[in-house]
Amino acid sequence: MRLKIIVILTGLCSIAGFAQEASNDFGRQVQELLSKMTLEEKVGQMTQVTLQVVSKTRGTPNQKHEVDPEKLREAILKYHVGSILNVYDLALTLEEWQTLITKIQDIATKESRLGIPIIYGIDAIHGANYIREATLFPQSISMAATRNPELVKKSAEITAYEMRAAGLPWNFNPVLGVGRNQLWPRLWETFGEDAYLVSVMGEAYIKGIEGDDNNIGSADKVAACMKHYLGYSFPLSGKDRTPAWIPERMLRDTFLPPFTKAVQAGVQTVMVNSGEFNGIPVHADHYLLTEVLKNELGFQGFVVSDWEDIKRLYTRDRVAATPAEAVKMSVMAGMDMSMVPYDYSFYEILLKLVKESEVPESRIDDAVSRILRVKLALNLFENPYPSAVLQANVGSDESANLSLQAAREALTLLKNNNGFLPLKKNIKVLVTGPNANLRSVLNGGWTYTQGNEESVYPKDKKTILEAIQDKLGRENVVHVEGSGHEKVVDIKLAADAAKTVDAAIVCIGEAPYCETPGNIDDLTLPKAQLDLAAAILETGIPVVLVLVEGRPRVITPLVDDAQAILLAYLPGPEGGQAIADVLFGDFNTCGKLPYTYPRHPNDLVCYDQKPIEMDDSNKLNPLWEFGHGLSYTTFAYSELKIDRPKMKMGDSLNVSLNIKNAGDRAGKAVVELYLSDLVRSISPEIKQLKRFTGVQLDPGKSRTVQFTLHKTDLSFHNRENKFIAEPGEFKITIGDLSVTFELVADK
Ligand code: BGC
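Above: inputs. Below: predicted complex with beta-D-glucopyranose.
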C-alpha cells in the first residue's frame, strides 16, 4: 500500500513541482531522476564547459559576444553537459546575460529528454563582476580589513540578487584559503592571514549569498562555492599554483577551520585547489576530498574541479600516465564535476571508464545525485530563467552606497605623523603616481575581464585624482603622473610640481593582475615608484603615501619620511571617493590590517608567531602587524574583566571591557580579543585572534563590550592530532590591557 502511494505521488509530482518539496534533501526526486538517466546523461551532468566552447565570437570592448546555437545544442543535447561557466573574456550586460541564459535553459529544459536545467557558474568575487551594470565591492582583502561581517553579508546579498537577475545561480566564491604568504598573487582574494577572521567573514559571505536558512531556491539567492580546497593559499614559493607543504596539525589548526565553518554554514559547493599538497595534487587526493571533506566534515554538496586541472594530472603533474588515468584518479578521489573546460574529453573518457568497469557506476551516481540536489535546491527545475522582477534594482544607488561604506571602513591608516591627516580643504596639492588616475587599479583583477581593461570601467566612478579635485576644486590640484607601475614617466616634472603645493599625495602600488600572471620575484615596490616617492620626499614637501595594492609591497625606504601612509588595498569602484573622504576628514578611518605588513622582502611572517621566533635574533619585525590601523580619534580601554579566574572545561568565560572615545571625533573602534596559551604541549602561538567587534562612538562616549570564550577557543591539535584544550594559564589581551585565567581539568 505504502509503495502504491509513493508511486502515485511520484506520478503526480512533475519535475516542475520538485522544488515544492518541503524537505531540503530532495532525496526522492534525485533518485527518481537518476533512475531515468542513461549513463551518457549522468556523465554529462559531471561535465562543465566554458562559454567559449559554445560561442561564435569572443566579447571584446569592440565586439559583441555571440553564442553559437548549434554548438550550444551539441553541448547540451549531444554531450548532456550539466554546467557552463564564465564569460568569453568580457563581462556581458544584464540584457545579454538574460538572452544567453534564456537560450541555454530553453534548450536544456525544453529540448533535452529529461529537461534538466544547466547550472551556470561565474566568479562573482567582488560583486557580480561579470555583469556590466552590477554593483562592485572592494575585494575580499579590503572586506577583511573592515572587520565588519555584516557588511560582508550585505554585499553578498546584493551579489546574489544581481546574479539571479541575470539568471546566474552559482557563484565561485568565497575564497576561504588563509592567506599566509604575502607574495602569493591571490592574497587579495582572501580574507587575510588569520583562520578565525577568514572563518567569520566566510560564514557571513555564505549566509549572504545563500540566505540564513540556505534556501537557495529563493528568487534572490544563489549557491556559493567555497574555494580553493585545500592549502592553495600557502604556496611555499609564493608563486601561484606551486606546492604547499602543510603538516596535518597545521592543516587542522589553520587551513581547515574556515572550510569546516562553511560546511556547517551549509555551503552548497566546493572548488578544489589547483596545486599540490604535501606532494599530492589535490585533484587526485582521496584523503582530502573524500575522507576529510565528505566523510569527516559531512559535506553534502558537490565538488567541482578548477580550470583544466583534471587534465593537468596528466599534462603537468605527472601523477597520471594517461588522460584516462587522470580522470579515473580524480573521480575516484571524490571529484563530482570537471571544469574541463574547453572540450568533451572528460565526458568521452569517463564514459569509457565506466563502460569498462574502471570506475563504478555507484561513484557516478553519487556525484550526479549531489549535482542534481543542488540544482533542485536552487529551484532551477521550476524556474531556470533570469528574473525580470529583480532587474530594476541591479546597480542601485543604495547598493553603491554600501560599496562606498565598505571601501571607507576598509581603508587602513598605517602612519599619521602628529595628526598630519586629515588634510584641510583650503590647500593646494600635488597628486602623483601610477594609481592616481586609473579606475582599474582600484578594482584589481576579476573586474569585467579577468585582467586589466581600463576602457570598460564606468566613467561615473571617480579615480583618486577626480575625487580629490571634487574636494578641493580642480584649480587646487596639480596632477603629474611621475611614474608608471614599472617605468619612470617624468619624475623631475613631478618633483618640480611638488615645490608649488602644500602637500603631495603619492598614489603608488600595483597594477591589476590575476592568478599566475601576478607572480613576482620581489615583494619590494618597483624601483620606478620608489624613486618617484623618494624624489617628492626630497623636496621637503609633506607627503602622504596612498597604497593601492593587492598584497603588501615593501616600501620601507619611504616610511620614515612620509607624514602619513594610507593603505587602500583594492577598494573597488568607490575607492577613489572613499580615499578622498578619509584624506580630507569626511570619514574617520577604522580599517585594521588583515595581514602582517613586511619590512623586508625576505622576512615574510604572520603575526601568530611561535615563542622560538620571539627571541632577540628572531624577533617579529614587520613594518606593521596584523590588526594595526590608526584612527583620527583615540580610544581608551579600561576595566578588562573576566567573570571567573578559573574556567572548567565545560564553562564559558565571559570577558568584558569598557571602551571610550577619548578624542574629539566620532569614530569606530575595532576591538580585538587575542588569546595566548602560556604553556602547551605543542609550542603555542604567541597570541591568536579569537573575537572582534566594531563599536561606533561619539566623542566622550563609552560602551561596555562583552565577549564569551568556550573550550573550543582554547583548543588545538595535540601530538596525536586530537583537538583538545590543556589545563593551565591563559592570557587575554585587548588593546593595551591584559588579564590571565586558569583552565582547570574537570574532576
Ligand atoms: C581559478 C578559479 C576560478 C576558475 C573559473 C580558475 O583559473 O583558479 O578561482 O573560479 O578559474 O573562472
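The mean pLDDT is 95.
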